[in-house]
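Quick illustration for those who missed Monday's session on complexes.
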Amino acid sequence: MIQDIYPHKLKNQYDPEKKPAEDSIIMAFRGNEVLMASDENSAVFPRLGDFTMDKERKASLQYLISIDETDCFMLAADAFDPESEAGIGDLEIPEGFSFRDTGKLRRMDIMPRENLFMEFTGHQIYRWYRDNRFCGTCGSRTEHSRTERAVVCTHCGRTIYPRILPAVIVGVTNGDRILMTKYADRPLAFYALIAGFTEIGETLEETVQREVMEEVGLKVKNIRYYKSQPWGVVDDILMGFYCDVDGDDTIRIDRHELKEGQWFRREDVQLQPTDFSLTNEMMREFKEGRQ
Ligand SMILES: [Zn+2]
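Prediction with zinc ion bound:
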């Protein structure tokens, strides 16, 4: 899975003492793009030493995460934009670097796994900072906390912490067969498992039961936890469960959500093109007889 980067270690706890060094990785995001030097075979993050930055700019870099002993800092999104509100958008993009689509880079699978996971996690933190520039309670500007991973409202003082959305992935089994589906509204050409977000006031087990009933009209029993995955694309933490169909195994698919849903024998399970996702690992576990 994307987070399986052993022996490397990603550290994402906030550390207010971190200061950027010349070899610190600089992540500069612009919407769904990230600044990298890349070609068909590789993609490399810029380091602080690649930029010409004054003291003030260096001090404004936001600490994000570390991978092993290398720290990673975020550059303000408008650093290259001369029209920016803060009037600091005069930084030059270092030679050889350009903004690349994050989704495309992931699909190309050209980065070492630890760098891919770092980009994945950094992008999620960037989006959280970006989307919390204003306080949802009083509408005033927020500023980055200097002591923890939080933003603080400059007017009412409210502290806002990162939010992660719980969601489930469900492998519904029926003896020697597993239920696989294809989404209706996504260009994904490959099979996946049932998935969905937890509603307010719901347990994870209830999410499993509800999502399976909504998407394919089946009752399930014997719900058992498998593993989890931080899947930053939609700010969620995925929790994988297997369960058994309970009674009638006739599939009635919800055409709004799915275009296909059927039982597959172990040997017929088709895996996804990359091994990034918990979904794919759960399908492989079943295919190879471990579940
Ligand atoms: Zn406020």
